[in-house]
Amino acid sequence: MTPSPETIRLTTAQAIIRWLSQQYIEIDGMEMRLCGGGFGIFGHGNVTCLGEALYGAQDALPLYRGQNEQSMGFAAAGYAKQWLRQRFMFCTASAGPGTSNLLTSAALAHANRLPMLLLCGDSFATRLPDPVLQQMENFGDPTFGVNDAFKPVVRYWDRISHPAQVIQSLPAAIATLLDPADCGPAFLGLPQDVQGWTYDYPVAFFDKTLHRIRRISPDADEIADAAALLKVAQRPMIIAGGGVQYSRAVAELTDFAAAHQIPVVETIAGRANLLATHPLNIGPLGVTGSNSANEIASQADVIVAVGTRLQDFTTGSWTAFAKDARIIAINAARHDAGKHRALPVVGDANLSLGQLGAAIAGYKAPSSWLALAQKLRAAWDVYVADNVAPGARPASYAQAIGIVNGLCDPGDRVVAAAGGLPAEVTANWRTLEIGTVDVEFGFSCMGYEIAGAWGARIAQLQREPECDTIVFLGDGSYMMLNSDIYSSVLSQKKLIILVLDNGGFAVINKLQNNTGNESFNNLLADCPTIPAPFAVDFEAHAAAQGAIAQTVSNPSELGAAFLRAKSSDKTHVIVMKVDPYEGWTTEGHTWWEVGTPHISTSDRVRAAHSDWEAGRDTQRKGI
Known about the structure:
With about 625 residues, this protein is α/β, with parallel strands linked by helices. The protein folds into 3 domains: about 5-210, 3-Layer(aba) Sandwich (Rossmann fold), CATH 3.40.50.970; about 220-380, TPP-binding domain (Rossmann fold); about 390-575, Rossmann fold (3-Layer(aba) Sandwich), CATH 3.40.50.970. Helix content is about 35%, strand content about 20%. The chain contains 24 helices and 23 strands. It has a 6-stranded parallel beta sheet, sandwiched between helices. A 6-stranded parallel beta sheet has the order 14-13-12-15-16-17, with helices on both faces. The mean pLDDT is about 95.
């Protein structure tokens, strides 16, 4: 009889943590743990069993204490971005509201294609004590609960109903997190009783495992088709998306563009693929773009879209391109490669660019086309320089961006997410070093800014400890989620946070006014249910969380405060009021489709609807 393999008796929770601690990846010639640790808030659904397992693994998998489950997920997303999806963090939350608080951050990770492992409490598998505290009962299906709500917003979902199940489920979850095409969050529901049940696991299951991220080689016929189209292009253009960085293909994209003299434009997620001074960098594209990039996009006959899902802010709701322009979409994800009748090249950006470059050897775009693009970029640079310059105008987002951009170190990381700042950073920030901009616009989630920066800072200190993480956010996002100021102080992970206070949700007020509507319920001054608007003392609030906080009254004072923050090893919060109406970047925008009233008693609303609909004339209708 064949002897049984050597086994070890562990609880389900112990097995999960032991297995995670033995997963490794090689990055730049160095082996390191694939999982960098986790963010956790304990409750009755995870403290007794998973907490016990994590206590014994503190050195291998450090656990950062969160203040809010949603912000823990944002921090995990920021961490994954900083590591270019090569490493991830887990989040653990208790059963019930603790877990449901992670839904928004799971959606953010799903939209941005980011790895994140969710280890969440669940109801008892035996159902003996049902109904339990915080259990969401479904009268017609006792297996259906809050955790099932994660199914639309994760890439992998499982409920561990027996300890042996993790032998299959954990590798499947990690395979999802590392898959370049299907990358996204993975969810494991952990019933409270099952977490503590034991099983005799094969010792070999916990052997050290070295993972590699798969590079998908493109199909030869797809490369040939793309080459045939590109060879006859008279006005080619490259769109560089966030996938370029995740594929570690920045050098390949730059070499490809240089060899064939093709102008490059960047998406919001693809900001910082090229330095601002690179002669082929024609600027950001789309609704929050640049005149230079949008003008050549409107004239391009062949568009090579690399590592982008072509969302509406990139495409101007599909008005940014000529209707007869052809798109070559290079993407590891088949879903993204086939949009709007694009000629798909399903494959890794690094490999695909190399093979496509070889297939069009000798081809160069007409010099007059590149000269036009560079002339347009030079004009855009002049506009940006004036836009960010302090002067007699009211203080603005752009001025704050310009001050910080001029004083920061090249490797400092900039984080923004929601409100008006993503547009202002995208349009006005001049990239000083590759991969240093995180404008979270996949889900554009208010509250990501500080939390995501905290996660990025944890990763940054592991990679580039001499650099800073800089956060731009408005007062609206600050009020939405600010508790990770406290997290950064507690964990000694310094952030520089700029709170630009415009008195409410000013960018949505701008959209409201631009569509003919009256200001209503966005700026504090325009909320009829607020009889006497109260100004929050952001400086005092941030200081109460342990930050070094200061309020400045103009961009000059902002610069001095920023330099003080740079020279410190403590988290700094710098507050400055900006005008809610003046100082917006007015150039560089494409049309963007929003729903406007087809009928109204307001002349202004009717006129705005007519003007807005006129932009639809250039919209590609899926062809």
